Structure of Glucoamylase:
Amino acid sequence: MYKNLLGALAVAGLWLDGVAARRRLSCRDDLNTFITKQNDISLKGVLANIGPDGSKAQGAAAGAVVASPSKSDPDYWYTWSRDSALTFKVLVELFIGGNKSLQPKIEQYITAQAHLQGVINPSGGPDSGGLGEPKFHVDLTAFTGSWGRPQRDGPPLRATALTIYANWLIANGGTSEATNTVWPIIAKDLAYTVQYWNRTGFDLWEEVNGSSFFTLSASYRALVEGAALAKALNKQCPDCETNAPRVLCFLQSFWANGYVDSNINVNDGRVGKDVNSIISSIHTFDPAAACTDATFQPCSSRALANHKAVVDSFRTIYTVNKGRTAGKAAAVGRYSEDVYYNGNPWYLATMAAAEQMYAAVYQWQKIGSIKVDAMSLPFFRDLVPSIATGTYAKNSDTFTSVIKAVTAYGDDFINVVKQYTPADGSMAEQFDRETGAPKSAVHLTWSYASFVGAIERRSGVVPPSWGEPTSNTVPAVCEAPPSCDSTMTFNVKVTTVPGESIFVVGSITELKNWSPADAIPLDASQYTSSNPLWTAKIKLPAATNFDYKYIKKTNDGTVIWESDPNRSATSSTGCNSSGTLNDQWR
Ligand code: NOJ
Ligand code: NOJ
């Protein structure tokens, strides 16, 4: 009897196990079905947004990637250098992976970028910082409205997309195309990166003017692989090799006690946990790398601890994450303090969280072991509660359970995306933090590209190495690049009376960021009534675009500004160069 009861219980248990297994299996089947379908929709979604013949990009130039067909609320009918380069990185990888139909698109992108590099815009001209302009009209003309500029991630991101392609050309009989068509574009992007990486600029979200982890990560990768490409093509990449280790050194300073502080050198009032850092880790993922902390590889202890910190920061603030406690995937946004459209989860951010997991799994399989240390232990504990620090070899049970749990964790982020993607597979930019309904720009190219990119990793398709294994040593002392200054003479003719003085103030640090209290005084020693000249020599970074105005201060502290609009100018090109601005007060 007793025996029978046990037996019956055992049978019932087995039966229950079977149900659970079948349920698990059917969940995974569901997910796989979704992924197959959504991947196809996403690739088509990307192509529909590329001119000239994309169905949603009518009127866009050949090779121009439209960010979204949305023309109002928000107006994304522009081509951003960042979105375009990240999208083409995915397309180039797919092309190399066998989708040869993408080659004409890649060629059109190359032609479009060669043209864009020459377009004079509010960030400057081709040699004076213009490559840092974030976005252009879809017909490839300059956008001149006010915007968070410059953004210095565009050039290195484009260099990377094109370098992957150039290396493929070299390996496939296309060395002359690589040399004559692709390299000249890459060379300009690398020259920009060399010259400007140590300057502040706007982050990838176009909001914060400082030093962005993402921009510096992209710069590092581009310089390393760019220097190697130059060698392969017998070309020069001036100062790429000297600057790369400096960038790597600087990148270390974003590590803030257990996570990456995504924006530094700026007082942004944020904790710094931002999916910026996760997108960086997947961008600099190198399939040949170990789990290197210095380069924040997806499987590194730092990047895993950071993944947990960033994902956890969204768990309690979004209603859609109710019940999604640590260890379960969650909807991920840009950063917790975000207020854009009220601050919501983004598809591309949630996909990035998935992609890091797949990339890490790839690395552990390749390396053949998993190391759990004090820094990464909390990440692993969420997924495998019994785990302890140690190194687990491929044949161990712990290795197997971690691989299984991390893969399932990655899949679970895709389940979140699945839950909030409409039945027709269209992907907007965001989904509502409370209702999960799609929000902001419709058919966002970057959302679609992020889906395709993550699914590539999930299926074990990886890009070529960018050279991380031989470029991951951090210099003992961080070195700044030598400064490259221009001395600009500001001459303004303005009639003044005793007690009045003239100052200049403007949009860059050297011109005191528009702070009238800190404005730079001009000198009146050459002033005569027939030549009322006020003058100052000011050191500015060379080849830099800036806005400025003169102001008049009176003895009683009154400040009188020149009339609108702001003046704009570019400092002279070349280190130790000089230039003169001759102005008339207005
Ligand atoms: C538009 C930018 O693209 C977006 O990232 C930003 O949050 C908003 N402007 C608000 O500054
Ligand atoms: C706003 C995002 O913050 C920015 O990263 C992106 O480049 C633009 N939208 C266009 O998609």
